[in-house]
Automatic annotation (TrEMBL):
Keywords: Membrane, Nucleotidyltransferase, RNA-directed DNA polymerase, Transferase, Transmembrane, Transmembrane helix
The keyword Transmembrane belongs to this UniProt entry's keyword annotation: yes
Domain Reverse transcriptase: 10-295
Entry-linked Pfam families: ALKBH8_N, RVT_1
PROSITE patterns: RT_POL (PS50878)
A Gene Ontology molecular function term of the record: methyltransferase activity
Transmembrane intervals: 333-353
Name of the protein described by the UniProt record: Putative RNA-directed DNA polymerase from transposon BS
CDD domains: RT_nLTR_like (cd01650)
Length: 363
């Protein structure tokens, strides 16, 4: 059977997806060790193997069409912590499992480079606004997405296939042995589906910064607005924040002002005029965990290094247990490389040069 991307878009004659393939099981996955409410769960959608196979066939086809029309520095997201956002003078978007040779390190390094380069000049400071969305993937409007895909020269048949895939999807929740009644959903792209990260990236592709002193970094559903301020003039930065709020309103994305935060990089500690999202003041913090790296207002890397060392030490226990079981050295080396070394070297290009001799020795 020919399952090329062009054939996959015709799973039924009018480029539709059979209802049985669109059905998904929602499994709540905890975001943190201690659960205090429903918002502490991430709703991951499990679809059929056939559906995932079709998505994997369509993914490279869709990428080949859209990539040439996007910023050449952008990379596409993969939630396994290998995203990349990048920059021209305007914005960055990215997920890196869809873009070769890109990683989280690139995203953080590029953000820090723009900040540090700006701070070399007199009378300057920088502000980073970390924007939080409420269930970003679940707010995509299929009809609006279809229009955006058409503007990116995606064939009409593939646009209709994607729209039908996202429309009238049956889903139900499974928690242990308990299963809920099924409901029909026509909004959003299921978290856990192969196409969802790319579709969200294309959906937000038109959201950019119009001023060279403001960098808009979109990391799938993580959005960061960097303001490079000179002579205390925040006019352009505040205007871009207002435009982001307006764009989100027109595209059905819901901002969470309570979870959005700002980190300021400046020598003078005098208070700045408050910044607000939808009339709600944004909290100014001393540090923020950005794509796995803790960025502090004084750009110290001890918090990040301490966290990595703690994780690596916890995993060393399993290596010792495997050694007691007398596993072959080759298997122990593979376990170390995959489970422990990957932790120790996480974002190493970001923090290693700025780490103290003591923290380097410990790590």
């Amino acid at each position: 059977m020919d399952l090329t991307p062009s054939k996959a878009t015709s799973s039924t004659p009018p480029c539709q997806v059979p209802a049985c393939l669109k059905t998904s099981i929602i499994v709540p996955v905890p975001k943190k060790p201690w659960i205090t409410g429903l918002n502490d769960y991430r709703p991951v959608a499990l679809t059929s193997v056939v559906m995932k196979s079709l998505e994997r066939l369509i993914l490279p086809h869709l990428k080949s069409i859209t990539t040439p029309l996007l910023d050449p520095l952008r990379s596409l997201y993969h939630r396994s912590k290998s995203f990349v956002r990048i920059a021209g003078s305007k914005s960055y978007l990215s997920p890196s499992s869809y873009r070769a040779n890109r990683s989280v390190d690139d995203a953080v390094n590029l953000a820090l480079h723009s900040i540090l380069q700006h701070l070399d000049s007199l009378g300057t400071y920088a502000r980073i606004l970390f924007v939080d969305f409420s269930s970003a993937f679940n707010t995509i409007r299929p009809a609006l997405l279809q229009d955006k895909l058409s503007q990116l020269s995606v064939p009409a048949s593939l646009c209709r296939w994607i729209t039908h895939f996202l429309t009238d999807r049956r889903q139900y929740v499974r928690l242990g042995k308990t299963v809920s009644d099924s409901i029909s959903i026509s909004t959003g792209s299921p978290q856990g589906c192969v196409l969802s990260p790319l579709l969200f990236s294309l959906y937000t592709n038109c959201c950019t910064s119009s001023h060279q002193s403001v960098k808009l970094i979109r990391f799938a559903d993580d959005t960061t607005l960097i303001g490079l301020i000179s002579n205390g003039d925040e006019t352009a930065y505040r205007r871009e924040v207002a435009q982001l709020v307006s764009w989100c309103g027109h595209n059905n994305l819901q901002l969470n002002a309570q979870k959005s935060q700002i980190v300021d990089f400046r020598k003078v500690t005098a208070p700045l005029p408050p910044l607000a999202l939808m009339d709600s003041p944004i909290t100014i913090v001393d540090s923020f965990r950005f794509l796995g790296t803790t960025i502090t207002r004084d750009l110290k890397w001890e918090p990040t290094i301490s966290s990595l060392i703690k994780k690596a030490q916890q995993r060393m226990f399993f290596l010792r247990q495997l050694r007691k079981l007398k596993l072959p050295p080759r298997m122990l080396a593979q376990f170390y490389t995959a489970i422990i070394e990957s932790i120790i070297t996480s974002s190493i290009t970001v923090w290693y040069a700025g780490a103290t001799r003591h923290t380097n020795t410990n790590s």
